[in-house]
Specification:
The complex is a heterodimer of chains A (about 240) and B (about 400). With about 240 residues, chain A is an alpha/beta fold. Chain A is built from 6 helices and 7 strands. Helix content of chain B is about 45%, strand content about 10%. In chain B, the strands form 3 sheets. A 3-stranded antiparallel beta sheet of chain B has the order 1-2-3. Chain B is globular, with a radius of gyration of 23 Å. Classes of the chains: A alpha/beta (about 240), B alpha+beta (about 400).
């Protein structure tokens, strides 16, 4: 035991010093995923537009014309044999349903009105993101690609991962992305005559349009609560404690 | 005498009115010689409303097309209009047999974004209840699988023994099926008095139940004849389809997120075995779930020994606001890999939640898996894949 701790002491001391100075980065990659990230970088090169790890998971934004190459690479060279999911996202800020008099509806979370993008950024409104994992090496990676708002065309992953079929059908009906190379894009969840793309931000939640949520009953101040909670979560935490 | 048939009368009705809309949706056409069989949407083997359009040549399936969406509730859209504490109510209904296990990854994702850590005792309570949900889900499966091959008795044992677990979950959380017990930063209540001893007793019942199922079904010749080498999922294909959980481990893939994924809850502190079976058929799926039920019961007993004292809630603000960012948390749920990709923009509710549910991918292999099997085996395969419709349709 003493030998082992003796050999580890210099390394531990080197690592301990910076962590005491700054809080440890919650997004830092472990050794296994850092290895994966390095392999991806060397194999993909300039196909990677941006990257930023999220809670120990590599997130890479790749060029949209490299979307299928990325899947091929992961499956055949990096042992990422498992397809977790493919999904889309609409970064447009959500319009407040109910129009101008929607101030009475305080039950819905009010989202910011300016457009911001998530990890690894985005160039436009629509993005497709997918996650693949390795069952043998126990690593996983999330890829994102921008989707051109006018063309809405994405390369299909079905030739690489057969399980992409249903995920892409769902993504097609929910966002309207057309997956180039998919055998049969048809409705999965929704009736075949359904029009519109429900998960887009400009598609209203019809239940709230028909009958506004009676949010006012919930906003009576709690007894003993001095002021309205501030937007800063930390300040609110101090109040509550 | 005329040998030709009289001409068909002409009706002044739109012919499209006769075409079943859903048939148009799945693109099947009536071909002479083959028979189209509609299985479902209501079928006892489906745990909800799964419809299978099966094309038959005699007794053999030529093609099968699952039609899903009869229970689509749009949780991903609804989540954008709810606050974080409200969403746990929704996601309880995804996989309704193991509701507690559904809450854990979502709450974990929100806690990661808020940089909040649940205290150790809360983590233990969460893990115990997750494993109890797994036992409840699997014990029902172990009984129902018998029902699908024609043995009625095990189903009653399954329901009876699951009741012990549901009583435990109810006494701790207040809800039998939908506990809604997780809070951001911990759990709602501490365990009631006497709960730990009750749980120890119930675990003994579960071991007995597993022995009963082993005697009744695993060793049964008819059961083996109906399930062995039926519905074989090759490991590399199952993985590419995203099949996960016990279904994948029954194909010999040694992969369990409790052990191999990013550490969550208290699984790193536990000593447990990941069971696999090399065959990949319906029998292997049954066998793996039987072993995993025992393993879960062992884990519960282990955790009851190790459980620390202490608080059950971390300090969190009264109004939950999650800082901007995104987080992906995946857990090994009873049915397989369950994950939430949460995008937050700093509001009281998420900007977008992608729900990755296990059954969705597990069922997507059905068109491949059912090709060429006989009609009675369709039911065995459906039952052994063990999906919950709420987990497919979300």
């Amino acid at each position: 035991m003493s030998d082992v701790s003796g050999t580890e002491t210099p390394e531990a001391a080197v690592e301990a010093e910076p962590t005491e100075a700054v809080a440890p980065d919650p997004h830092a990659l472990d050794a296994n995923h850092a290895d994966l990230q390095a392999r991806l970088e060397s194999a993909l090169g300039d196909a990677i537009l941006e990257q930023s790890p999220v809670f120990g998971m590599p997130v890479l934004r790749v060029r949209r014309n490299a979307w299928r190459d990325v899947a091929e690479l992961c499956k055949h060279s990096l042992d990422c044999d498992y397809l977790s999911f493919i999904a889309g996202i609409d970064w447009m800020p959500a319009p407040k349903e109910g129009g101008a008099d929607a101030a009475s509806d305080t039950s819905s979370p009010v989202q910011p009105t300016e457009t911001t993008y998530g990890a690894a950024g985005s160039e436009g409104r629509f993005q497709v993101f997918a996650r693949v994992q390795s069952t043998s090496r126990h690593w996983g990676v999330t890829f994102k690609a921008d989707v051109d708002e006018d063309a809405l065309l994405v390369q299909s992953w079905v030739p690489v991962y057969p399980g992409a079929d249903w995920h892409e059908r769902e993504c097609w009906e929910m966002y309207g992305f057309v997956f180039d190379g998919h055998p049969a894009l048809r409705h999965l969840y929704l009736p075949s005559e359904f029009e519109g793309h429900p998960l887009r931000k400009d598609y209203p939640l019809l239940a709230r349009v028909v009958k506004p949520w009676p949010g006012l009953v919930d906003v009576e101040p709690m007894p003993g609560e001095a002021e309205e909670p501030t937007s800063d979560a930390a300040a609110t935490a101090e109040e509550a404690s | 005498m005329s040998t030709t048939n009289p001409p068909l009368p002409e009706f002044d009705i739109d012919p499209r009115a006769f075409r079943h809309l859903a048939d148009a949706q799945v693109g099947v056409e009536l071909v002479t010689g083959d028979m189209i069989l509609n299985l479902g949407p209501q079928h006892p083997a489906t745990h909800g409303t799964l419809r299978l359009v099966v094309r038959l040549d005699g007794e053999r399936v030529i093609s099968a097309d699952p039609v899903i969406g009869y229970m689509h509730r749009g949780y991903e859209k609804l989540s954008e209009f709810r606050t974080y504490p409200q969403i746990t109510t929704l996601i309880n209904r995804i996989d309704w047999l193991s509701s507690f296990a559904n809450e854990v990854p979502f709450i974990d994702a929100a806690e990661q974004l808020m940089d909040v850590q649940a205290p150790p005792r809360a983590q233990y309570i969460r893990t115990i209840l997750t494993e109890l949900s797994r036992i409840a889900t699997f014990v029902l499966f172990l009984g129902e699988m018998g029902l699908q091959v024609g043995a009625l008795t095990p189903a009653f044992y399954g329901f009876r023994d699951r009741e012990h677990i549901l009583n435990l979950i109810e006494s701790a959380t207040g809800g039998r099926f939908h506990p809604n017990f997780n809070r951001i930063g911990g759990v709602k209540d501490d365990l009631p008095w006497g709960w730990i001893n009750e749980t120890r007793t119930a675990m003994k019942t579960i071991f007995d139940a597993c022995d009963t199922f082993e005697d009744l079904l695993v060793g049964n010749e008819i059961f083996q004849a109906r399930t062995r080498s039926i519905g074989i999922i090759p490991p590399e294909l199952g993985v590419a389809y995203g099949v996960s959980g016990s279904n994948l481990r029954a194909s010999g893939v040694d992969w369990d997120l409790r052990r191999d994924g990013k550490p969550y809850l208290v699984y790193p502190e536990l000593d447990f075995k990941v069971w696999t079976h090399p065959d990949g058929d319906s029998f292997a799926r049954y066998w793996v779930r039987l072993q995993e039920t025992r393993e879960s019961a062992r884990m519960v007993l282990q955790m009851l020994e190790q459980m620390p004292a202490g608080p059950i809630m971390a300090k969190v603000p009264r109004i939950i606001k999650v800082p901007a960012g995104e987080a992906w948390v995946e857990t090994e749920n009873p049915l397989g890999q369950m994950g939430y990709y949460v995008f937050s923009k700093g509001a009281t509710g998420p900007f977008r939640v992608k729900i990755r549910s296990a059954s969705f991918s597990n069922v997507s292999i059905l068109p491949w898996l059912l090709r060429g099997v006989f009609v009675p085996d369709v039911i065995t395969i459906l039952a052994s894949l063990y999906f919950i419709l709420g987990d497919i349709d979300r």
